[in-house]
Amino acid sequence: MTTQSRVVIAFIFGTCLALALSQAQTSSPPSTVQKEALMTKEANGPFDVKINPLTAYNQDDQSLGRFSLDKQFHGELEGTSKGEMLSAGTGAKGSSGGYVAIEKVTGTLNGRSGTFVLQHNTTMTRGTPQMNIIVVPDSGTGELKGLAGTMKIIIAADGKHSYELDYTLPDSR
Fold first, then answer.
1. Does the domain spanning 39-168 belong to CATH 3.40.50.880?
2. Which listed site, 58, 73, 106, 141, has its alpha carbon 20 to 30 Å from 24?
3. Do 148 and 170 touch, CB atoms closer than 8 A?
4. What is the pLDDT of residue 149?
């Protein structure tokens, strides 16, 4: 058995063990307490983004990239974010590729302040994007504790960016 095979088997075993342990720790008897009903809300507004290249781990492959993200949100979400993005593709117009990113948002969402993390997973197929951006579960802090949701990014023909955040947030502060 090769060293690489042993590493893969150890990784799979470790992942399965971690999942089993987390299930055992989070299992609890059924509760008779009803959870409050959450209504989905929407926040919209423009944002500015600065994307800068970072040193990539794999410098031998120019189709792979690593970038910093710095955003300034306006509208119903007022705040900033910082994050990192990994990408694959040529970047040529109409081409295919993909990116993943993580960014931490600090700000105020409809009057409630705190932080939360967004996770991006986007695939571009011959120029058509399929975007999936979620609020990482349990990442909300402060008055944004309990925040859950998804975000859409809209890029206008003139290149300006805006967001649509569909979210739920417990009423209690």
1. no
2. 141
3. no
4. 98
Residue among 162, 132, 141, 124 nearest 43 (CA): 162
Measured between alpha carbons, how far is 64 from 87 in angstroms, rounded to an integer?
6
Q: What pTM value is reported for the model?
A: 0.77
Measured distance CA(75)–CA(155) in Å, rounded: 16
Instruction: Say how many residues make up the chain.
Output: 173
Structural contact between residues 45 and 76, judged by C-beta atoms closer than 8 angstroms: yes
Backbone angles phi, psi at 143, to 5 degrees: -75, 0
Residues 58-72 as b or e (16 or more Cβ within 10 Å = b):
eeeeeeebebebebe
The H-assigned helical ranges of the chain are 3-26
Neighbours of 142 (CB within 10 A): 14
Report the pLDDT value the prediction gives residue 35, as an integer from 0 to 100: 56
Cβ atoms of residues 121 and 140 within 8 Å: no
42-96 pLDDT per residue, tens:
999 999 999 999 998 988 998 999 999 999 999 999 999 999 999 999 878 889 9
